[in-house]
Every structure is written in C-alpha cells, then in structure tokens.
Amino acid sequence: MKKNVFLFFLTLFAIFFTGCQNNESGFPSSDNPTVVVSTKEIYGAPSRKFEIKAALADDLGLKSVEIQIPELSLDKVISFATDPLLKSYDLSYFFEVPANRGTSEAFKIKLIITDVSGNVVNEEANLRLDGEFAAPSITMVTPKEGAVILLSTSNQMPVNFVVNDDSGIDYVQVKCEALGIDETVQLTGSPQSYTFNKTYTLPVTAADYVLTITAKDKFAIPNTGTLSVNIVATNEYPALYLCDQPKGTNLTTDAVGVPMYFHEKSGQDFEFKYYADKDNKEIYFLGQESDFAPHCFGLNTSGELVDDVASTAIILPTKGYYSIKVNPNTLKYTATKYTPSSKVWADIANGLWHDDEALRRPFVSVCGGGIQGADWDTWTAWVQTGLHLANNPNNPYQLVGEYTLTGQMEATFTGQWWSPSWRLIKNGICTMSPGENGNAKYPAAAGVYKVVLDTELERVFITKK
Asked: What is residue 434's predicted lDDT score, i.e. its pLDDT?
C-alpha cells in the first residue's frame, strides 16, 4: 500500500514538473514563427558590407533572431521586447566581410528564429564573395558636358560614347525628351565593352537639351549607371574661353579658371584680358568649357583663324598682359599688349592684423567652404597662415598660394574684416568688393591645388598640383 501511494505521488510530481517546464516561458503555446528571406543568394566581397534582409512573423510574439556565419566569426543575437509582444519584424542586418577572405569563397548564413512560446525555426541563405557592385562606366566621346552645337554651321549632333563593365552589359539607353529621343540597344553575349555611335538631327531653333545615357549590366543583382550631358544648340556662341593648355589636356581636372571665361561680349565680339607668363605663349579659343572639341579656334597653315580641332596655337610673342579681341563668326582676332593701371597689392605676405586701421598692413587669405582650414570668419583666415596668399615676385598683380580642397568649394579672398576682398563668383570671375554678390560653388576633387588670384584680370585660377 505504501508503495502504491509513493508511486502515485511520484507520478503526480512528474506531471506537475513537466507542466512547469512546458509553461516556463509564461506564454501559451503557439504556432511556429515564419521567416521569408529577401533572397537566397547574397553577394558580398572582401572588405565590403552586405545586407541580410528577412521578414519575421509570429502569431503570438517573437523572442529573438540569431544570425550565424561561423567561418566569419559572426554570431549575432537580436532580442525583442515582450511588452508589448512583437508579432512582425523586418530584419536588415549589415556585416562587413573580413579583408583576408577570398573572392572564390562561399558560406551559409543561418537564421535561428525563436518565438515567446519557445518554438524555433531555422532558415538559411547562401553568401558568395564574388559579387560585382560597380555600375557600368560611361565615357562620353561627344558631345561633352556643356558642348555648344552651332546651328548656323550644322544641326547634326553626333552622339558617341563607350560603356565598360566587368560582368557584361545588358543594354544601353539614350534619351532626350525634348528631342523625342528614346533609344534602347539590347546587347547579346554579355559584352564587357560597347561603343555607341549615332548622329541625331536637331531642330533649327536654339535651345538647351539634356541627353541622358543609361547602361545596365548583367550581374545577378544588376547595376545601373547613368550620365547626363547638358548641350547648348545655338545660332551664336553664348561664351568663348581662352585656353593656354596643350591640346589634349583634360580640362575638367582643375577646380577654377581653366579655360578662362571671356571678359566682355558685344554680339559675337568677345574681349579677353590675359597674362602671358612667358614669351611665345600658346593659346586657343574654345567654344565650350570642358573640351577642345567640337569648337577649337586656332591658326591654319596660312596663319588665319579657323574653327578646327586640328588647328595650331596662337602665339603671344612676349611675356605680359594682353587685350585680346576675337569674333568666331568673322574669324578675326587681335592681341594687343598693354600695361595695367590697376592698384598693386604689394607686401601682402607681411600683413598685420590691427584694430587701428592706420597701423594695419593688408593681408589676403581666404574665407569659404571646401577648403581645409577655412571658414567664413576673417579671424580664422588670419590665424590660419597656411591660407595666406603671397605676392608673385614675377607679377605684381598676382597673389599666389596653395590650398588643400576637400570637395565642393566656394571662396572669398579677404583681408581683415573683408578689406580688401575679392568674391569668387561664377566662371572663375573674382570681383573686388563691393561688387557682384553670390559666391559660386565649384565641384572639385579632394587634393592639393595651386591658387593664383590675378587682381588685374579679376580672375582666379585654382589648378590641381
């Protein structure tokens, strides 16, 4: 009898103990959680982050999700609050692949989802390290950004560009809504390089256009590259530029002033002031800012001005300042040497900050953005001596220095309390204050640049060192 009583209580205790275990969480039983990964194939690369995305849900409440890649030492647990219960969660977790892994490696990503009732569900996704993430590169041959198409000469617009991509090109598209251009070239065989070359006819009326080039590659997760090119179709030149760089120079690497914008314009008569820093200085006139093509004015074999990319340079025989007049329609130009009469800002390098203006000696530094060490306070401009400009010993009208640019820049070259000061506005024009307001913003690659402020020309030249 005692034995039977003992067995009864033992069975009752076991049932009670098991019941406590089953309800240990304090939550009733529920269905298993669900998980839907956004993709079963995830691409990464050494030293690059990839994203794990999944939609988690449970009819009662989620407790946690664990993310594991043992080979990459990843074991991340994300726990969820239970008051209130969380029934759904959009997982978005980024992880950087160690730099020492190989591009041929592949791994399993394991997700372990637990709900508040203790139900556990596992899900896996594949991680490959041979991912390709670069958009197709688009290199314009013609037209270049800001190209001028002179309708009085021809209304034909050749469009020529090259697309390159390591994983192969799916298609390229050329669009210009204003011209009714919407052309897609679907490529076969996954070529890694493709050249587009076609000529379009423009209306005879002057207008500005935006040509948009798009290219898509054939990677498993496609990459798309886009390039927009602004074009000016006109019956006359809106601007001319004076270029003193050798033919073939990339005119987009410098920040400001190359090529140099004209000074005065009357109809199609353009006037420049220019400083030749040596004898036999070679120059051209360009109809566009970013390239020598399509309009490059130089000399033919007879010494006459021509609009021809193959033309030779105009020679300014001796060092000094010139007044240059040119008409791109009549193809006539003159270059007359002159002696400046503007103020010379001498002894700038020995400036002195002083509240008493009579005891002050002028200095020229810079205020602005995108320039290392500079802000908009003239006291900062004074104390940051590396920003100070100095007199050019070879030209009393030029102040020179060296700046480190950090990106898009804008500037006013200034002394104490903005006296003296030259504001850098559009097209490299640097007017002495008081003058035109509105500092212009110039895109620039980070790096070290030479700076020349020409107070006679009221131009600034900021060129990559």
From this structure: 66
3-state secondary structure the chain: CHHHHHHHHHHHHHHHHHHHHHCCCCCCCCCCCEEEECCCEEECCCCCEEEEEEEEECCCCEEEEEEEEHHHCEEEEEECCCCCCCCEEEEEEEEECCCCCCCCCEEEEEEEEEECCCCEEEEEEEEECCCCCCCCEEEEEECCCCEEEECCCCCEEEEEEEEECCCCEEEEEEEEHHHCEEEEEECCCCCCEEEEEEEEECCCCCEEEEEEEEEEECCCCCCEEEEEEEEEEECCCCCCEEECCCCCCCCCCCCECCCEECCEEECCEEEEEEEECCCCEEEEEECCCCCCCCCEEEECCCCCEEECCCCECEEECCCEEEEEEEECCCCEEEEEEECCCCCCCCCHHHCECCCCHHHCECCCEEEEEEECCCCCCHHHHHHCHHHCCEEECCEEEEEEEEEEEEEEEEEEEECHHHCCEEEECHHHEEEECCCCCCCCCECCCCEEEEEEEECCCCEEEEEEC
CA distances from 62 to 82, 122, 125, 138, 406 (A): 8, 14, 21, 47, 47
CATH of the domain at 165: 2.60.40.650
- Residues in Cβ contact with 234 at an 8 Å cutoff, skipping those fewer than 6 apart: 148, 149, 150, 151, 206
> Is 70 a residue whose pLDDT tops 80?
yes
Count of the separate structural domains present in the chain: 4
Q: Judge contact between 30 and 22, C-beta under 8 A.
A: no
pTM for this predicted structure:
0.69
Q: Are residues 230 and 257 in the same domain?
A: no
C-beta of residue 225 within 8 angstroms of C-beta of residue 137:
yes
Q: Does some domain include residue 247? A: yes
Q: Round to whole Å and give the CA distance between 448 and 465.
A: 6
Does 2 map to a domain? Answer: no
Domain holding 75, by residue range, is 34-128
Instruction: Say yes or no: 141 and 206 in one domain.
Output: yes
Confidence of residue 260 (pLDDT cuts 50, 70, 90): very high
Residues 400-455: tens digit of each pLDDT: 999 999 999 999 999 999 999 999 999 999 998 765 668 999 999 999 999 999 99
Tell me what the pLDDT averaged over the chain comes to: 92
